[in-house]
Each structure stands twice: as structure tokens, then as C-alpha cells.
Amino acid sequence: MNNFQEKARDFARKAWILALRAWAGLKRLAIWLSPPPRLTLTLLGLIFSISLLSWAIGDRAREAVLYFPAVRGGSLHGESRNLPRSASAEKTAELVASELLLGPIDPDLRPAFPPGIRVSATLYRHGVLYLDLSPEAALAPRPELEKGLEALGRSLRASLPWTRRLVLTIGGIEPWLEGLPGPSGGPKKSEKN
Q: Rounded CA gap, 174 and 188, in Å?
């Protein structure tokens, strides 16, 4: 064999050995950089569990329908709002009523109550929801107040359909209850008489 062929074989053998070492080095680097399969599955499972838990207990929004009187005709029309989810019926009722008191977004609807009225208290016991508005609500003219209370009642029933009975009060007193002063100042007469 001539000298050139020996040098070529020697060069090819060295190049092959160098390529094998490089390949082995790359494999070791890839193994070192990649996590073990069990660790990967554990991390993915942990990430999924945390995201599922945060979704389950997170403060997600829910759609509520609020009813407002129409500008023309006065009939009640629904308007959809996204409200935060709450764990209790009392908090849901307070959110719905407070949002209703802010007024409608649609310009064809008018507010159910005059400005400045707020929710004083909510209480839910044994299927009965008690909601008290601030005393300023009683200053509204009777037709407007009746329409506002109707809108509030309808909005609360839509958001809390399992409620058996709804008691709306103003300053702790049910409006137009038998024997209490009506808007004219005198006692209200029974509708049966």
C-alpha cells in the first residue's frame, strides 16, 4: 500500500472515531438536558391539578339578567350582565340588586330606581330572601317605586330561581303593608274590602 492510501485510511478512521465521540457527547447532553419521564409526567399532572383547582375556586363571572323599565311603555325588558360568582345566595342577591341600582346600559331602558339608593341588608333563610333598600327609595313616586320593586323582584327571581319567597323592604318596612302609612300618609285599606 502506498503512503497516501495509509494516510487516507488513518484520516478516515480518526474522523469516524471523532464522529462517534461527538454523537455520544450529543446523546449524553440530550439525556442530561431532558428530565426523566416520571418527573415530566409528575410536573404535568401538578400543573393540571393547580390549574383545575384555580378554575374551580376562582372568581369566575356568571351571566345575570337584570330587568329595567322601557323608556316607552314602561314594560320590563331584560339586560344581560356578567357578575362575579358568589358562594352564597345573600351575596348573589346583593350583587344583583346593586347592579340593578346602577341602571341600564341600553339607552332604550330607564333606571328602576332614582340615584342614591343602595342595598342596606340581605338575608336568605329557608328559601326566603329578605332584601332591604335604603330609606331614600320611599321618596320615589308610587308608580315608579312599584315598577322599580317589580324590576328588582323579577331580577332576583331570575338569578335565584330556587327562592320560594321574596320579601323586599325599604328602611326595614314592607311598602304598602296593611295598616302602615301609604304614600298619601293614611293607612292602606285592605284590597279585599
A: 12
Q: Report the DSSP beta bridge partners of residue 167.
A: 130
The total of other beta-carbon atoms located within 10 Å of residue 183's CB is 15
Give the dihedral of Cα atoms 126, 132, 138, 142; nearest 10 deg: -40
pLDDT digits (tens, 9 = 90+) for 83-140: 888 878 999 999 999 999 999 999 999 999 999 999 999 999 999 999 999 999 988 8
Gap between the Cα atoms of 98 and 122, Å rounded: 11
Q: Return d(Cα 186, Cα 39) in angstroms, integer.
A: 79
DSSP annotation of 190: P
Give the Cα separation of 7 and 67 in Å (integer): 94
* CA pair distance 37, 46, nearest whole angstrom: 14
Helices (H), the chain: 3-33, 37-57, 89-102, 142-159
The residues spanned by each domain of the chain are: 61-170
